[in-house]
Every structure is written in C-alpha cells, then in structure tokens.
Design goal:
By secondary structure, this protein is of the alpha+beta class. The protein folds into 3 domains: about 5-190, no CATH class; about 195-350, no CATH class; about 360-425, no CATH class. The protein has helices at about 1-5, 15, 50-55, 60-65, 70-75, 140-155, 195-205, 205-220, 230-255, 305-320, 325-335, 340-355, 365-375, 380-390, 410-425, 430-440, 450-460, 465-475, 495; strands at about 20, 30-35, 45-50, 85, 90, 95, 105-110, 120-125, 140, 165-175, 180-190, 255, 280. The strands form 4 sheets. Strands 1, 3, 7, 8, 9, 10 and 11 form a 7-stranded antiparallel sheet that branches. Strands 2-4 form a two-stranded antiparallel ribbon. Bound molecules: adenosine monophosphate and magnesium ion (MG). Magnesium ion binds next to loops.
Length: about 500
Amino acid sequence: MSTILKSDHSRIMSLESLAFDNRYAKLPAAFFHTTSPRPLKGAHLASFNGRLGRQLGVTVADSAQHGFIDYFTGAREMAGAAPLAMVYAGHQFGHYVPQLGDGRAVLLGQVRDKQQRLWDLHLKGSGPTRFSRGSDGRAVLRSSIREYLCSEAMFGLGIPTTRALCLIASRERVVRERVEPGAMLVRMSPSHVRFGSFEYFYHRDEYDHLRQLGEYLLEEEFLHLRDESSPFLAMFDEVVSSTARLIAQWQGVGFCHGVMNSDNMSILGLTLDYGPFAFIETFEKDYICNHSDYQGRYAFGRQPEMAHFNLLCLATALLPLVDDDKAVAIAQLREVLANYWPRFNAAYLAIARAKLGLVTDEAGDLELWQGLLQLMEGQVDYTTFLRELGAIPLSQLAHHPQREAFADLQSFDLWIYEYRQRLAREGRSDEARRDAMNGVNPKYILRNAMAESAIRKAEEEGDYSEIDRLLPLLHDPFSEQAGMDAYARPSPEWAQRIQLSCSS
Ligand code: AMP
Ligand code: MG
C-alpha cells in the first residue's frame, strides 16, 4: 500500500495533504467497529461538488486525477484515515431497536478544512459492516443521486444539513425490487452523532460510555457550554433549539423527511440520512413520501410532533448525565423539553410571516397563513404560488396567476382581500416586499421530476450531465436563473405521486 502511495504522491497532492484528525476514532472500542470500505466494480466519478471541495482544498482538477476514485471507494487507503463504522441504536417507527449502526457506510476519518473546522468524511454505500444485519451494505445509484442533490439543495436553501462532496457510480449490480447499479456518496458533516448514539449506551446501562460520548461532544461541538453548572442539560437545551428551528424550516419550505427515526436525528440539528424524502409540490398537509409508512407516522404535518417524540427519547438517554437523583434529572430535562413547542411555534410563525412578506407582528398572522394552506390543500403548487405572490403589486393581488387553481374561489378571493388589507397596514413598497419574499420563497426546489430525469439519464445512458446542471441551480435557489424556468415548474402528476422506500 505505502509504495503505491509514494509513487502517486505528486499526482494527488491535495488528497494526500488532507489533514486527518480522527477524534472519534480515539473513543473506546465500544463506540465503533474498525472496518475498511469495499471498492465497487468499475467505480467512476459521476459528480464532484467543487464548491464544497474548495473548503477542504480539494479541487475539480484533483477529482479528475487517477487515484481519486481509488481513495474514495476504499481501493486504496488514504494516508492518515482511520475508517470505522459507528454504532448507534434508535426508535424506528416508535419501537426501540437496541442496535443499529453504520450498516452501509464508514467514517473514513475526520479532516480539518481550511478554517480548521473538523469534518467527518463519510462514505455511504461502502459495503457490509458489523452492523449490516444481513444486508449488502450497498446504496443504489438512484438514492445516491437523490441524496447528493438534496443535501446541496438544502444547503442552498439555508437549511442545516449534512453535505455531499462527490458521487461515485459503478458497474456493480445491487439487488433491490429490481437489479440496479450500485453507487457511493462521500458525505460530510461536522458530526454524525445521532440521538440514537446516546440511546445505545443508555439502554445498555453503559453509563461510563454515555458520559464519554457527552464529553466528546462537549469538547468538539459545544465547547462554549463546558463551564455551565449543568453542561449536559445546557447541551440538551441547544439540541431542543436547533431541532425546533430545523423542523420549522422543513415545514416552511415543504420538506418531508420520510423516516424521522431517532437514529436519523442529528445531535447538531442537521438534516441527516436522506432516504424517501420529498418536497411538497401540490400542498398536502398529510403528505406521506415513504411507501413503507402505512400509518402516516412521518406525514408532512406530523413532523413537528415526531421531532418532539425523538427529543423525548434523547432526554431519557441523557438522564444519568444530568443528575444522580433520577427524579431531579427528570424534572430538569422535562423543563428544558417544554421549550420545544414555544421555540418551534415562534420559529415557524417567523417563517410564515416572512413567506407572506410581513415585517410587523399582528395577532391574526398565524390564522392568515393557515387559512392560505387550507385553501391550497390538494390543489395548488406550494412553491410557485408563494413565489408568484411576492411578484404581484398590491393593487393586482386579486389577479394571482394561479387563482383559477383554487376550487373555492370565493374563499380565496376573501383571503386575498384580507391579505391585501394586512399588507396595506405595513405600508411597504411592492418592490421591497417582492425582494424580501424572493429571499425566502425559493424559485427552485428539488422536485421529484428533476431528480428522476437526472436518475434516468445516469442509469440508462451513463450520462451524469443533468446532475452537474442541477447542482449550481440548487445551490442558488432564490435567484432567477436564465434558461432554467422549466425547473421551476411543478412535476407532472406521475412524478408527484412517486413514493420511495427507506433503505435503497
Ligand atoms: P436507514 O433507514 O437508511 O436510516 O437505515 C436504517 C439502518 O439500516 C441503518 O443502520 C443503516 O446503516 C442500515 N441499512 C440500510 N440499508 C442497508 C444496506 N443496504 N445494507 C446494510 N445496512 C443497511
Ligand atoms: Mg439512517
């Protein structure tokens, strides 16, 4: 191995100079299983996210180098990397599963970016690990493209998320409902610790490990809480805040995660583990994007409640860290958890006001917003309607281009009348309102049809150009982009109805 590294040293300079600092690997063996990724047959680079790469000092030119693929598929070990699969547990669809873990991913290692920020370099689809539970450890091209594009779409929308550095396609076949090409995704995140990471140690009564995990996070991510009288309670308070803000953003943009199990909840309040997700197109409060979610547990409108359930699971797991007296710990954690709803509601209302172009606070604003959602239900495209609403001068509001899409025209006209009165009380110019609304109502989201066309080209023709075309578009979703209007249109009916499964 090392001779190969030496001989290729000059050609892959910036990958070779990645500054690994594997903090997680220094935790006790109980936290992970050391494992190496298994390369894919015929692996080749499908897309490289140059914008994210620059943060690490890895360029598009590096990605084109022979050797890059070998490093990012595990055919060659990166100097300094310490690949491992993280263990965790979690509540899946409400039921506790005592052991999960990276079943198809490895943490290649942690690297410092140019700003000295520590990032997990995580390879998804990297073959079986100790935690694969009999599955193949692979990811299909279809779902890898979706994760690649959606991570970056969320980033562009200003919503906290794990990132995607590159997408690797292959000639390897993977068996799902059909035989499909396998792929790998290099995911980056400041941390992959999940609510379920804490649950794993708590439910095994391994309180020393539980404390070590807490200490690790305090050190790496919550250093400013170190000197608090109760640092783990303070950490939980921050997780409650970041989760409330994240879910308010999801609800605001119309993002449906699809599988909000506690093992898919990031301790940093990031969108994590993209599976059967979807952006709402025609507004539907109870939209379900995961075809295995028979009860609609993770329906769009239930996401805030599900986040609260997951925070309760986390609070339980933190009990031994907060106070030796269990009754005291329960009371304290409960008090902090009680902040979730007020924080979520405040964040959501602020988003709703901004989406309506309101700058002042009035008592009836939430009702005004909810009234609009009710009218849109099952009829109107959420994203284009709001974008267009911002573009119409106050005097023309009665002529919204999508007016005819509302079945209850009378109620819609009444709503517009009230909205107009409300705006008139603010006295803002049409231009100022439009500019502000354009900054919060995206023109482009990752619609199902967009992902599908990129997937079809890739699967059928080995053509990845559509992915590279979508990436800059999604990085900048609030701007008008010349020649890209077709991407702002609602997906056709067939694509709106697509439901996806979890572990593809
Ligand atoms: P997910 O629903 O994708 O969050 O996956 C739940 C758990 O199943 C995680 O621990 C995954 O690592 C694992 N998993 C999902 N798909 C596979 C697969 N194809 N092979 C091995 N493990 C998997
Ligand atoms: Mg997961």
